[in-house]
Design goal:
This protein is mainly beta and 115 residues long. Helix content is 0%, strand content 53%. Strands 2, 4, 5, 6, 9, 10 and 11 form a 7-stranded mixed beta sheet that branches. It has a 4-stranded antiparallel beta sheet with strand order 1-3-8-7, with no helix packed on it. The radius of gyration is 13 Å and the shape is globular.
Amino acid sequence: EVQFVESGGGLVQAGGSLRLSCAASGFTLDDYAIGWFRQAPGKEREGVSCIGHNDDRPYYADSVKGRFTISGDNAKNTVYLQMNSLKPEDTAVYYCYADGARGYWGQGTHVTVSA
């Protein structure tokens, strides 16, 4: 069974940190490009960060550049989004996405940053 399970969201004060995880089963993340997206209430889903298959040059949206870091652990078949210096405007539901022969979305995890 293919699964792409997110964890790590929660409530944090401004300036704090969270690390989101997406654990894959039934497929190998190393074969996929990975993206993190977010959707704030009343807004469209937007791209936050992505990294291509065997690509060591990740992309970051300007709004998160210097604060967020995308990474992966092939041994654990898991990808991460480390989020530092969080701001209230980072509040959203965060989704991971694996792009390959098929696309897989995580179920989403809520991140709330209080002022």
